[in-house]
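Hmm, how's this folded?
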Amino acid sequence: MGKETKKLLVTGACGQIGTELTNALRSIYGRENVIASDLVLPQSNSPLLEGPFEILDVTDFKTFDSIVEKFNIDTIIHLAALLSVVGEGEPQKCWNVNVNGTLNAFNIGVKRELSKVFVPSSIAVWGEGVPKIAPQDAPLKPRTMYGITKVTIELLAEYYFSKFGLDCRGVRYPGIISSETLPGGGTTDYAVEIFYKAIEDGKYTCFVREDTRLPMMYMPDCIKSVIDLLNAPLEKLTRRCDYNIGSMSFDVKTLAEEIRKHIPHFTIEYKPDGRQKIADSWPDDVDDSIARRDWGWTPNYDLSKTVEDMINKLKIKLNRAVS
């Protein structure tokens, strides 16, 4: 509000989304105007260190608030969270980081009169009884602590908007596929691991069944969704932190077949573990018509474009040709 230069703070910047999003935001707003933060410093060669970086435990309100004050932050992009698989191993910590960390972001947003607070939600908010294609409004009965925290955050966003006028925004992310940063303990991690194993070993053992179908999104569209929603006029928005957004949906068998078009010798076997139960509680796809209507959401990548781009980028990254 009235701040001359937009300054953004990204929490959880070392994570799968945070790394690439921080770089994208710095290309738009300037390197010095996007402050990255996480629990620990990234590796010394990380591009995150090419701009301001702060050590931050988001459950520490005092430090969180002092960083916002120090850099005259206008917008918080709050990505710090424990994901589904990690959260099931440490449910109390998952609640503390995800819910209390977000409450700190919201309370600082009110205290400092910030322009916006972006907090992503997830397809994990759904559970038993959700239709195969999840509508914008459906019963939220998650089966994981991660999902429970995300439902809580969606409700808190509504509360902080109606009670304090805080402009909270967010989307329900599907599984995210990225060539740059490895995933951090989510149920959809197989959709990234499979590419590395295909290129490095020519084979992969998948922890969910071949017919497991889930909504997915390629990282460039993930980044695009944040930027598009941040730039949308507030008066156009009818939701807070719970916009469904879709891109593509496929089962593991279809993904493997698409990879095989580029790596013909690739083989896959299936050994479902406890993550299968989590995947089974989520929808096959989502209805994102409200996001398309309110702020013009449109993805750029489908499965074939994603697979081709992932393999090309990982070949370079891993410095290994695939015959």
